Amino acid sequence: MQYSVGVEYALHCLVYLIDVPSDKSVGIKDLAEFQGVSETYLSKVFGKLSKAGIVSSVPGVKGGYRLSRKPEDISFWDVIEAVEGSKPIFQCKNIKDNGYLYRENCCSAPSFCTINSVMLSAEEKMRDYLRSKTLAWLNEELDRVLPKHIRKDTREYFSKSN
């Protein structure tokens, strides 16, 4: 299982948008430059975030993006699902039905696959955990673990750009 780097870029950029006043926005150029990623790539990621209602785009010369919801209402899972889609990680192919005993009609297949059940249950536990972590939590955690000057410089960078 692997999430694309787009999820990481999205989470970082969304944290930068937390302190942007509701009447302002941050341009994709500034976000991309700060992250060291192409504008084209980040635009695709933000298109998905916009479609999911996590950010809203502001048109025009001074346009850009801002959060559409409060940071405490945006979970890691919301971001992952927006960027990656909602397809389950484990894709059961019912290979048990191709086993020797089932091919020879010696046994009837059970109504469900135990392996699939375990995998889906594990995925749900992971989703629940990711739903419990929000942008507000991430913002507080970054304030706790990063040097103060890094947070200050980051906030200043984005306050000048909007």
UniProtKB/TrEMBL annotation:
InterPro entries per the UniProt record, alphabetical: TR_Rrf2-type_CS, Tscrpt_reg_Rrf2, WH-like_DNA-bd_sf, WH_DNA-bd_sf
Cellular-component GO terms for this entry: cytosol
GO molecular function list: DNA-binding transcription factor activity
Family matches, as Pfam families: Rrf2 (PF02082)
Signal peptide interval: none
Gene3D superfamilies per record: Winged helix-like DNA-binding domain superfamily/Winged helix DNA-binding domain (1.10.10.10)
Protein's name in the database: Rrf2 family transcriptional regulator
Native organism taxonomy: Bacteria, Bacillati, Bacillota, Bacilli, Bacillales
